[in-house]
Amino acid sequence: MLKGKHIILGITGGIAAYKSVSLLRLFIKAGAEVQVVITPSGKEFITPVTLSALSGKPVVSEFFTANSGEWHSHVDLGLWADAMVIAPATASSIAKMANGVADNMLITTYLSAKAPVFIAPAMDLDMMAHPSTKRNIELLKSYGNHIIEPAEGELASHLIGKGRMEEPEGIFEYLKNFFASSQDLSGKKVLITAGPTYEKIDPVRFIGNYSSGKMGYAIAEEAARRGAEVTIVSGPVSISTNSPNINVIKVESARDMHKECLKIFPQCEYAIMSAAVADYAPVECAENKIKREKDEIPVIKLTKNPDIAASLGEIKTPKQKLIGFALETNNEEVNAVEKLKRKNLDMIVLNSLQDKGAGFGTDTNKITIFDCEGNKTTYPLKSKNEVAKDIIEYIIK
Ligand code: PMT
To answer: Is 313 in the pocket of ligand 1 (CB under 6 A)?
Structure first.
């Protein structure tokens, strides 16, 4: 799985740095190309000579080589990598990564990395348990970074608790599994709706909602990362994607979204309806801006929009899977299961505005999945990137 992969191995200044040598050897044995980037304090724990001898490449630590003035481009390194692994990651480096404190080559490389990042924390138990470390780790998770949780055990301080860096074999397995699962949607076509719809009242006003598109775009990124060819039919949002596997079709109204989805769905294996589609639209859009009249209050007559998910449910073939969302404020489970059945969905992802950090606009979400076989799976609050991973994994399973 790792043969030919370009891996940046980031080493920071902790006692567990000695284990990075074993990790490096495992990567090299598996056929990966490894570039070691080490922080100045990392060099206090392990010598660059050992690391460059094993990796077959000069170790990068400073922004430039002092005697020749040769510049080391963190941007090029960030583009070169298929994965960046930071092991061990100290509390200080974790804080810098979480907050963008770019004061060494490792952190600038991290900030430039386009590839998935894996972070293996290693520190004393009290540092690990400190609210600031916990908050920084949560921030890193919310950026989509993978945290390889430290184990419990005896620490360098001889105290016993959580903070021991995961063993090199464990980190290696984590990466192997990541790349193994990474192409499981290869050759599949996935349609995703995302964002809000705008239903025009006049040239300057519309009926809309608070959807940012973050949930739908996160699902699209995860599906694309796993090899799918993804089309997002997106309402008006301010986010974008660079993934070459994602095609974005921008629409404004529910009717336009409906039209595009009907065109694309027949070629797809999966459709995931995460858009917050307006159920109603004004019967007509005024040609000119509606003026404020002295006494008269305008009445906007509404008409029902097409139900996109239900339309796809009607034409779905046995080879296709249709996944809906339910955004609820009350009676959540009953409403979600009712939508699952009424729209002929294979599964529905419930998120409730009663849950703090869930739903519109946030970087996090808290979901419960119901499937058409009657199963219910509840997840804790997670970053939308992690939620996207859970959803895709559920669909594949
Ligand atoms: O975009 P974010 O800010 O990240 O927020 C994410 C989200 C809250 C928008 C997302 O997680 C979510 O819940 N999306 C569905 C919102 C919604 O409209 O739910 P609903 O319960 O009203 O609709 C049920 C399902 O039918 C949804 O899959 C919806 O896309 C679909 N639908 C609804 C109405 C309609 N006319 N056509 C549809 O296809």
So the answer is: no
